[in-house]
């Protein structure tokens, strides 16, 4: 159980834009940012409901305790102070993840403080432990769609929802297999259920499933809950009204509107206010489609909004909102609510613009024929942003969206690099030096880690996610020569492709996330040695370029080893797509290069620690070749839709061998706490000006930031 405890002594960072970036905005831009931030935060409860059935009532409970205690916790003695600190560490991690499962790892975490102390806080706050958790939530929450009723009392919520850890249920996954998922309600949903709904419901009716949840009410009977302000179906031209029978003549399905109705109403209302301060007509039209999406539940309205978003080039205030990433839903098709509001960093954006301008040249260096690339590369918008607001279970360092394959193919996409996230994530803590980096490598690693990470994220997002063409059949033909398909890895024409209605996500399912993240990461490693790219990022001499490259390969090897924490040795299940990807790359360095000295592990004398030994003289030969081979396989399998061979190949590369599994206990024992981010709140003051409120980098500061949002 010890590995389930909340992080101890985790670093906290305030995402500060108050001094340097926010004052650069015009009054109109500040108000646009303000209302978009309000819309973002209004979706916070949606994220919690998607994580676990207990997350939202836990949120209500910890905010109620803090408010009723007026922030004054027991500190009368050493024991009370220790218990309070441990409690607040749990609270801070919960708020940082918007739920009681790690956003990076998908595993449940519990407080380090004693359960008796938690219940003592109830007594001090005068909260009846025998009352229902419903008494703590806002009066206008629509309880018909929430999961508070699963816990009859607050005591039960604490004992089961907060503190109970069961081996399988502490991981996100299909309930039918014993795991946890709040994307599903009712009877346990199975992989076969979701495969049936994907093929015979969503694909056949051309309805996008991202903004839904699944309620299984009978063995062959489902309700599809649609996130919308409207409590009734007002888009019957695209969504069937009433119960329908699928083509198997057995399964009954009905669309139920009004999931997250309160939050969708709030989001839409703030977007309407933001419309008054848009910079151009494209933004105004984009927000109108967003409003239509959140009010009616129309998935196509969100796609229309994303088309307009792609066309809104290099805005000063960048935003995106909706049900976006599908990593955490076990079948890989339902999206987590996510929203970004950020301010453009013009200096860093100039670097990325240069990378975009040379993108076609760099893509031509990748190890496959033109048949596997779009005939025309539409240069995307690629900006560096300073995050003001990010609502979601975790904040990435970079984003490449939209995820709609047809929009990416026909209109384009955008890349954003989140500068203040990059800077904070790469920052070493004086309390926690980087694990597994040898003493002789530490100076170069610490000096160039942040720089190398910025280069890698840039390549990953633009040239990684931005490259490639899925060989696809459309209703009006094919986007490749069907009679003479491209050659596959065996030198023969490929025989697989994406049929009408099939997408990357629907075809590869749960494996799509880690597979694609791996492909993008490997492209970053393949091009990291390119001196022209390094020059673009400001490294002009050979010594600094080589240092960035070496730090990058060290960083990837270390990340692959750290990934062992996110692999469950009993189930063989990976808990985080990026970490599964990075492990497979590290394993490729170690076991699939032509020289076994390229990457080795050196144990210390007591066998309780180890150091990474990477031969920098082999990076541009042995390292580059093994990366090239891995990349070619991943890309061809993805583009040709060869789910059978592609899945087999990637699963083999990301399978943990006994020798590497033996390192897992050491990795966990040396685990460093994950950084947590505190976000500002904005207000319109008596003079009709926007002001920002920032917070102390403490758990109490994190708590106050959420209380001030009045969620």
Automatic annotation (TrEMBL):
Keyword terms: Aminopeptidase, Cytoplasm, Hydrolase, Metal-binding, Metalloprotease, Protease, Zinc
Gene3D superfamilies to which the protein is assigned, alphabetical: 3.30.540.30, 3.30.70.2600
Molecular function terms, GO-annotated: aminopeptidase activity; dipeptidyl-peptidase activity; metal ion binding; metalloexopeptidase activity
Location(s) in or outside the cell: Cytoplasm
Reaction(s) catalysed by this chain's protein: Release of an N-terminal dipeptide from a peptide comprising four or more residues, with broad specificity. Also acts on dipeptidyl 2-naphthylamides
Cofactor comment: Binds 1 zinc ion per subunit.
Protease as UniProt keyword: yes
EC number: 3.4.14.4
GO biological process: proteolysis
A Pfam family it matches: Peptidase_M49
Family of this protein: Belongs to the peptidase M49 family.
PANTHER family associated with the record: DIPEPTIDYL PEPTIDASE 3, DIPEPTIDYL PEPTIDASE III-RELATED
Protein name in UniProt: Dipeptidyl peptidase 3
The organism's taxonomic lineage, starting at the top: Eukaryota, Fungi, Dikarya, Ascomycota, Saccharomycotina
């Amino acid at each position: 159980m010890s590995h389930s405890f909340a992080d101890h002594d985790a670093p906290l960072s305030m995402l500060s834009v108050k001094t340097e970036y926010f004052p650069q905005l015009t009054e109109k831009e500040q108000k646009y940012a303000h209302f978009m931030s309000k819309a973002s935060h209004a979706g916070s409860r949606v994220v919690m409901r998607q994580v676990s059935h207990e997350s939202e009532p836990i949120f209500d409970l910890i905010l109620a305790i803090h408010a009723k205690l007026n922030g004054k916790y027991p500190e009368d003695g050493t024991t009370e102070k220790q218990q309070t600190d441990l409690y607040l560490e749990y609270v801070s991690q919960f708020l940082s993840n918007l739920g009681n499962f790690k956003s990076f790892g998908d595993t449940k975490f519990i407080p380090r403080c004693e359960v008796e102390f938690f219940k003592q806080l109830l007594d001090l706050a005068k909260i009846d432990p025998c009352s229902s958790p419903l008494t703590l939530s806002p009066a206008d929450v629509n309880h018909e769609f929430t999961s508070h009723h699963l816990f009859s009392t607050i005591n039960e919520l604490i004992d089961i929802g907060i503190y109970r850890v069961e081996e399988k249920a502490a991981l996100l996954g299909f309930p039918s297999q014993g795991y946890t998922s709040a994307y599903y309600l009712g009877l346990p949903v199975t992989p076969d259920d979701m495969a049936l709904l994907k093929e015979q419901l969503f694909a056949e009716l051309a309805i996008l499933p991202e903004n839904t949840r699944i309620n299984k009410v009978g063995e062959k009977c489902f309700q599809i809950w649609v996130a919308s302000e409207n409590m009734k179906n007002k888009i019957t031209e695209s969504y069937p009204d009433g119960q329908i029978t699928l083509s198997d003549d057995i399964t009954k399905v009905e669309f139920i509107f009004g999931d997250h109705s309160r939050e969708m109403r709030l989001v839409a209302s703030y977007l309407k206010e933001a419309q008054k301060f848009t910079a151009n007509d494209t933004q105004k039209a984009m927000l109108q489609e967003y409003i239509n999406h959140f009010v009616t539940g129309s998935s196509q309205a969100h796609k229309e909004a994303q088309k307009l978003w792609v066309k809104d080039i290099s805005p000063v205030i960048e935003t995106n909102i909706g049900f976006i990433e599908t990593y955490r839903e076990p079948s890989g098709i339902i999206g987590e609510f996510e929203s970004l509001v950020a301010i453009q960093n013009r200096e860093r954006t100039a670097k990325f613009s240069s990378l975009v301008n040379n993108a076609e040249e760099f893509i031509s260096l990748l190890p496959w024929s033109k048949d596997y690339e779009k005939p025309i590369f539409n240069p995307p918008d690629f900006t560096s942003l300073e995050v003001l607001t990010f609502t979601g279970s975790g904040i990435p360092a970079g984003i490449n969206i939209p995820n709609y394959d047809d929009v990416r193919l026909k209109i384009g996409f955008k890349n954003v690099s989140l500068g203040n996230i990059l800077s904070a994530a790469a920052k070493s803590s004086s309390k926690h030096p980087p694990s597994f980096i040898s003493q002789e490598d530490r100076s170069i690693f610490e000096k160039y880690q942040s720089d190398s990470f910025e280069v890698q994220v840039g390549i990953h997002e633009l040239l990684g996610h931005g490259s490639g063409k899925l060989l696809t059949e459309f209703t009006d033909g094919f986007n490749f020569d069907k009679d003479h398909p491209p050659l596959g890895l065996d030198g023969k024409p490929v025989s697989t492709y994406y049929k009408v209605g099939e997408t990357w996500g629907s075809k590869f399912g749960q494996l799509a996330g880690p597979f694609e993240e791996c492909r993008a990461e490997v492209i970053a490693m393949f091009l990291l040695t390119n001196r022209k790219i390094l020059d673009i990022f400001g490294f002009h001499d050979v010594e600094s370029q080589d240092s960035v490259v070496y730090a990058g390969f060290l960083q990837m090897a270390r990340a692959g080893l750290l990934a062992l924490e996110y692999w469950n040795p009993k189930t063989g299940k990976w808990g985080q797509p990026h970490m599964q990807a990075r492990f497979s790359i590290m394993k490729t360095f170690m076991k699939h290069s032509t020289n076994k000295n390229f990457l080795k592990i050196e144990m210390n004398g007591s066998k309780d620690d180890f150091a990474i030994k990477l031969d920098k003289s082999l990076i541009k030969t042995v390292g580059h070749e093994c990366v090239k081979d891995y990349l070619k396989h991943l890309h061809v399998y993805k583009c040709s839709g060869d789910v059978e061979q592609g899945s087999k190949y990637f699963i083999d590369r990301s399978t943990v061998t006994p020798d590497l599994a033996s390192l897992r206990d050491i990795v966990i024992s040396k685990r460093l706490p994950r950084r947590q981010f505190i976000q500002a709140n904005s207000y319109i003051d008596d003079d009709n000006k926007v002001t920002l409120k920032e917070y102390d980098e403490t758990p109490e500061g994190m708590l106050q930031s959420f209380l001030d949002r009045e969620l």
